[in-house]
Amino acid sequence: MGFRKDFLWGGATAANQCEGGYQEGGRGLANVDVIPTGSERRAIITGKRKMTSFEEGYYYPAQEGIDMYHQFKSDIALFGEMGFKTYRLSIAWSRIFPQGDELEPNEAGLQFYEDLFKECHKYGIEPLVTITHFDCPMHLIIKYGGWRNREMIVFYERLCRVLFNRYKGLVKYWLTFNEINMILHAPFLGAGIYFEEGENEEQVKYQAAHHELVASALATKIAHEVDPNNQVGCMLAAASYYPYSCNPADVWEGKNKDRGNYFFIDVQSRGAYPAYALKRLEREGIHLEMSEEDQALLKQHTVDFISFSYYASRVATADESLLAKTAGNLFPTVKNPYLEASEWGWQIDPLGLRITMNDLYDRYQKPLFIVENGLGAVDTPNEQGEIIDDYRIDYLAAHIGAMRDAVELDGVDLLGYTSWGCIDLVSAGTGEMKKRYGFIYVDRDNQGNGTLKRSKKKSFDWYKKVIATNGEDL
Ligand code: P53
């Protein structure tokens, strides 16, 4: 009963939110570097406001992140102390190919990750590597237009070949694109795309998505060729939509909203564009350049497992007047009157995780991997300087409990769980430091002040116990 014996407990980060060192080791500039905090952030990540270099008067939190580039050894030691079996991290593409279109990789960048992976193995930690978590070399955006351009597949393939060959034996678990559906909601952050006046944005986004889907299949093919032990996953920003009411129009809306996200995984896991998507694209006058070779590749090289993030469930309605009452986040949702929300308006719904797991497992019948989940909250040290984050423990205990139900009671096959931001890092949505997810506190504020010193929160020992008991003692 319970979780597998080899269940992969751990935590997750992304290069752009923790590494910093943006000019170190020959690293090139990336989209994530030039995204500032503040009121224009949303317009920038959604591709409406173009920012392609540093501008006067803005603060760019990714430049230094939490300085993990320099502190990864002591940070990984702390993960080891908690008993992590896995650590999810991402590769900063522009460390490996600073411009993106070079023929030869940058050795300093490759060495950095090699050292990092070796450090993980010292503690028996299996790296889980996201090949791209939102970042794209800036040169590829300026010269080629990011993922809107088919050439990107060539550059991504080159990156993948280098990674799979260099890290053979060090890395076994790979994710091709973080939250691949984010391309629809934050195209500059997700895929290096900004829009030109008057262009058909949906056309651009779906063509770019097609390029990513083909690149993902190609990566899966190469990963398996280089090492048959490699396991490749897709990654979805998941959470099922609930219909706001039993009005069939709301139910239908919910189903279509879900399909808007499943579309990507349907292609990556089942190997073809689903009928509903082809019909919708046709109806909306979106024409995709898609060759027979593309279709064969998609068919033959489907993913080994389904990974996803889950923070909050979503609500769909056909009633336009309710849609105005959105509750935080980049995903359109109506406020759910039955749920409490976080300080950032993300609704807290542990059962929703079990529902989402069941939906995904019913649909794909492949092992699942929860690679992000957690509570973004303000942590205030007490007089002794400790962080007593019982709210975080409550959130995680409830979600891990629901995940255990999905495994024990529903029979879902789950490979592992990595909580998001196991060490405090920069928020992707807002660029803030004060939206914290970690078991480890980092002394740094929204303006970039602070010593960067690490300290354990109350949840540190709690998670250590959860791992030691394989999720029995929450
Ligand atoms: P933050 C929303 C906005 C941006 C990225 O988000 C997101 C989401 C949530 O669906 O996706 C993931 O930092 C992402 C992480 C991110 C995390 O959610 O805005 O993969 O990079 O940090 C949490 O609180």
Any key phrases for this structure?
single chain; 474 residues; alpha/beta; TIM Barrel; 8-stranded parallel barrel; two-stranded parallel sheet; binds 2-(hydroxymethyl)phenyl 6-O-phosphono-beta-D-glucopyranoside
Structural class: alpha/beta
The main sheet orders its strands as: 1-2-3-4-5-7-9-10
CATH class: Alpha Beta
* CA-based shape: globular
- Strand runs, count: 12
Largest sheet: 8 strands, parallel, barrel
Q: Which molecules are bound in this entry?
A: 2-(hydroxymethyl)phenyl 6-O-phosphono-beta-D-glucopyranoside
What portion of residues is helical?
40-55%
CATH topology: TIM Barrel
Can you offer a commentary on this structure?
The protein has 474 residues and is an alpha/beta fold. The chain has a single domain, classed as TIM Barrel. 40% of the residues lie in helices and 12% in strands. It contains 17 helices and twelve strands. The protein has an eight-stranded parallel barrel with strand order 1-2-3-4-5-7-9-10, surrounded by four helices. A two-stranded parallel sheet has the order 6-8. Strands 11-12 form a two-stranded antiparallel sheet. The radius of gyration is 21 Å and the shape is globular. The chain starts with 7 loop residues before the first strand and ends in a 6-residue tail after the last helix. 51% of the residues are buried.
